[in-house]
From TrEMBL, chains A, B:
Upper taxonomic lineage: Bacteria, Bacillati, Actinomycetota, Actinomycetes, Pseudonocardiales
Official protein name in the record: IclR family transcriptional regulator
Origin species: Pseudonocardia aurantiaca
Pfam entry (one): IclR_C
InterPro entries assigned: GAF-like_dom_sf, HTH_MetabolicPath_Reg, Tscrpt_reg_IclR_C, Tscrpt_reg_IclR_N, WH-like_DNA-bd_sf, WH_DNA-bd_sf
Domain IclR-ED: residue ranges: 65-244
PROSITE patterns registered for this protein in UniProt: HTH_ICLR, ICLR_ED
Matching Gene3D superfamilies: 3.30.450.40, Winged helix-like DNA-binding domain superfamily/Winged helix DNA-binding domain (1.10.10.10)
HTH iclR-type domain segment(s): 3-64
Record keywords: DNA-binding, Transcription, Transcription regulation
Amino acid sequence: MGETVTARVLRVLAAFSADRPELALTELSRRAELPLTTTHRLVRELTQWGALERAEDGRYRVGLRLWEVGALAPRGLGLRESAMPFLEDLYEVTKQNVQLAVLDGAEVVYLERLSGRGAVKIITRIGGRLPLHATGVGLVLLAHADAELQEQVLAAPLKRYTAKTICGPDVLRRALADVRRTGVAISDGQIELITLSVAAPVRGRRGEVVAALSVVVPAETSDARAYVPVVRAAARGISRALGAPDPVSR
Amino acid sequence: MGETVTARVLRVLAAFSADRPELALTELSRRAELPLTTTHRLVRELTQWGALERAEDGRYRVGLRLWEVGALAPRGLGLRESAMPFLEDLYEVTKQNVQLAVLDGAEVVYLERLSGRGAVKIITRIGGRLPLHATGVGLVLLAHADAELQEQVLAAPLKRYTAKTICGPDVLRRALADVRRTGVAISDGQIELITLSVAAPVRGRRGEVVAALSVVVPAETSDARAYVPVVRAAARGISRALGAPDPVSR
């Protein structure tokens, strides 16, 4: 097949998804596009090590040991650990949804989400991905991304989620300039009409934007302006905890 | 070498640890006990896929994509997701350390920890491991583990952490019986003299114990009995959310 064993191992791991966290061997073989015998051999080794686990019904799922190794990713739990006290505070003050996200490729990846029981229901999930142009955290991350990524996103079709989604490159370009100028992104009903997100950048040791923080509240009854100071303050707090230069510029 | 490529890939991943989350290629090669050329080839493929990332100083670390795959582990974030609202409540009520842990092999693995700013400092870490006999969550998990594991732990040397650590098999056997009888484990100064842990079992769909929950408070100034009802109630709440049969037995 000309493909390395490492590539096959990674394809087995990539066969699992949030929609399909448990897979029978035949499904796994089909999704990984590998022969059944190859899949069986790889799965046996991965299960022995603990990268996969076998459920009682015989299906396979991602194992605790792989979760542990993943937890060592500095851009995953490491960042989350520094941010957590500030996320907690923000959650206690707002009782809404509080999110922490990073840029990966041309998408947002959600590292953490705290949701109050009475908070507006939202579609994001820890470890889940959403596009940059339609989310508050995405606008923040895109506004501070390198020019190449910005041009790439502006040149590609911008998927419409609601009547309010920013789908024109010129509107998006202006929105990004606003984010850089004000230090905050407000995404009102762009991914779901009922939610409004207020997001701000989290900076690292060299002042570079390493993550974005947001509060997601009900669009109808919330005044976005009321959340701007608290979101910016929390984002600055995390930046300081990460060793960002002080004063943290907007 | 007679070893499969899959085993080598897994050894590269296992070379990372909480103490050493970033490794230069030579360190990685040494810790994985693989030749430098082999390590280099594997690391290149793992980095291309996103399982590893290269830091600015050239060192390697666990990548965001592996964190995402790990986040699919049903025993990791899946369990955590169901537990989170109850952990939040427990944290708000106590303002101390709240922990969720599962059994893996003969150890406790911590899935989640929420710590108040003023809470007593503790040694656990998300994704970290501790022995069963010296922690509150460990006593709960061991008390409900199969007889084989119990005998294995009782037969092995029990490491002493403090003057209060349970190190005798007879004392441990009685402690486990108490946990089963009372539905709660109290571990007072066993891993560090300054902390006291109150832990209770979380049950799954068939009533089996799938995790343990604890509150860790300062040993000197806390009355463990004050925490028993709230910890048990939170553990039952999570059990119900996981579909445990109701009424949840002790």
